[in-house]
């Protein structure tokens, strides 16, 4: 079961690496790095959803709740990233959301994987 989440996990780590790289490159954002970061993030979401659909049959209610939390974190990440790149709203607030959401997302997904593995 863990092997099914290896590629999504690697994609998540790559998203973080490119996100840090984009952040440290400063504003205005490097177009190539920024687009690679967005595409890897989108790919990670797609691959994760595909893998979860395969293993979610008969899942506990807690798993479903954690997946909803994870989905909300993904939405928050895409929205805050877009708003930061456009310079909309309060940049500091969006940056805080963009820093907290991946931590909550990672914790929720680790718990989901452990629960689906019967740990």
Task: List the SSEs and their pairings.
Elements: H1 6-25, H2 31-55, H3 61-86, H4 91-116
Helix pairs in contact: 1-2, 3-4
- Give unreliable regions as ranges: none
The ordered H/E elements are HHHH
Strand content: under 5%
**Helical coverage, percent range:** over 70%
- Any idea how many domains? 1
- Give the radius of gyration: 15 Å
Overall structural class, as computed from helix and strand content, comes to mainly alpha
β-strand number = 0
What can you tell me about this protein's structure?
With 119 residues, this protein is an all-alpha fold. Helices cover 82% and strands 0% of the residues. It contains four helices and no strands. α1 runs antiparallel to α2. The model has no long low-confidence stretch (mean pLDDT 87).
Write a concise keyword list for the protein shown above.
119 residues; mainly alpha; 82% helix; 0% strand
Summarize the structure.
With 119 residues, the chain is an all-alpha fold. 82% of the residues lie in helices and 0% in strands.
């Amino acid at each position: 079961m863990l092997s099914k989440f290896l590629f999504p996990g690697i994609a998540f780590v790559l998203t973080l690496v490119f996100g840090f790289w984009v952040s440290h490159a400063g504003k205005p954002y490097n177009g190539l790095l920024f687009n690679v970061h967005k595409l890897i993030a989108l790919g990670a979401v797609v691959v994760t959803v595909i893998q979860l659909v395969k293993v979610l049959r008969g899942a506990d209610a807690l798993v479903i709740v954690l997946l909803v939390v994870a989905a909300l974190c993904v939405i928050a990440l895409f929205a805050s990233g877009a708003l930061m790149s456009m310079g909309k709203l309060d940049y500091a607030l969006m940056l805080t959301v963009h820093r907290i959401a991946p931590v909550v997302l990672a914790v929720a997904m680790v718990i989901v994987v452990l629960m689906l593995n019967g740990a």
